[in-house]
Design brief:
The protein is of the alpha/beta class. It has a single domain, classed as TIM Barrel (Alpha-Beta Barrel), CATH 3.20.20. Helix content is about 40%, strand content about 15%. It contains ten helices and eleven strands. The strands form two sheets. The protein has a nine-stranded parallel beta sheet with strand order 3-2-1-11-10-9-8-5-4, with helices on one face. A two-stranded antiparallel sheet has the order 6-7. β4, α4 and β5 form a beta-alpha-beta unit. α1 runs parallel beside α10. The longest helix is centred in the middle third of the chain and has 17 residues. The termini are close together. The model has no long low-confidence stretch (mean pLDDT about 95).
Length: about 290
């Protein structure tokens, strides 16, 4: 079981509240803590929000914190929980800085980092940093190749369309051999093929229909087999975004449906349903009690 950190909205009140949330989540028994990634929040985005009406989303995430700093703060007050991102929009980040930051987080958390990547649904982010929206998949592949080099060789050298690094000493190594495990989001055949080739598993949402996902998982398994990987080892971490007014029993039922569908991890996000750390922790405590 995982929880989203209070990264957005009124629950992100102060540093003390964030630290309390992280340490209390660990004490309650949650296994992972998660962050999202949004460079900025346009009033009227060029691309449609896949979740439907953008206005409630805007009202909450306009007050949002940068994910790496949040994870570093949470890691400093915890000992057991792992951290992941759902998702880091990898292509809009400068690759060398992304590699350095994730390496540092893995080092300072004693190897408790995962790296969950996506492409972002918002074209505005690509336009703002001068990157091609059409080439976002190619850029993600380049970044994944580069991260593998950064985490497994020294000196590092790399040359691609997205990254150019001359032979470079990289003596700070990740605690985890090979670097933080890679997770990938997406809901298309190319995305699932990429998951099969090079990821631990898929980052998804509980309201994606199973009949839609079934053929995509076949794509992922074929790609894993073609790449010499074990298709049966692919995992899934599925997010449950709690709706305003949804009862603890209704949330628990959604979690159970996700488990029954075969998810390896459930990530519960109270972004839209809670306005404080204490309220979120109360809800998270009741949900955990229902799982036991």
């Amino acid at each position: 079981m995982g929880l989203a950190l209070p990264q957005y909205g009124p629950a992100l009140a102060d540093a003390r509240g964030l630290r309390k949330f992280a340490s209390s989540s660990e004490e309650i028994g949650y296994d992972t803590l998660w962050c999202g990634d949004r460079l900025f929040t346009p009033v009227t985005p060029d691309t449609a929000y896949p979740g439907g009406d953008y206005r409630p989303y805007l009202e909450r995430i306009a007050r949002g914190a940068e994910p790496f700093t949040l994870v570093a703060t949470a890691a400093a007050v915890t000992e057991r929980v792992r951290f992941n991102f759902s998702t880091l929009n990898a292509p809009v980040h400068e690759p060398v800085q992304l590699a350095r930051t994730l390496t540092t987080l893995d080092f300072l958390s004693d190897g408790r980092m995962n790296a969950g990547f996506g492409l972002s649904w918002m074209r505005d982010e690509y336009d703002a940093v001068g990157l091609s929206w059409a080439q976002r998949g190619r850029r993600l592949d380049d970044i994944l190749d580069f991260l593998a080099k950064w985490w497994t060789t020294n000196p590092v050298s790399f040359e691609s369309q997205a990254v150019s690094v001359p032979p470079t000493r990289v003596d700070l190594r990740p605690v985890q051999p090979g670097g933080p495990p890679i997770w990938l989001g997406g809901a298309s055949a190319p995305a699932f093929a990429r998951i099969g080739r090079r990821a631990v598993g898929w980052l998804g949402f509980d309201r994606v229909p199973q009949e839609f996902l079934a053929p995509l998982w076949e794509v992922a398994r074929r790609a894993a087999d073609d790449a010499g990987r074990d298709p049966q080892a692919l995992q899934s971490a599925v997010r449950v975004n709690v709706d305003p007014g949804e009862s603890p029993g209704e949330v628990a039922a959604r979690v159970e449906r996700v488990r029954e569908a075969g998810a390896d991890e459930v990530v519960v996000d109270y972004l839209f349903a809670s306005s404080s750390v204490d309220e979120t922790l109360d809800l998270a405590l009741e949900l955990m009690a229902r799982q036991r």
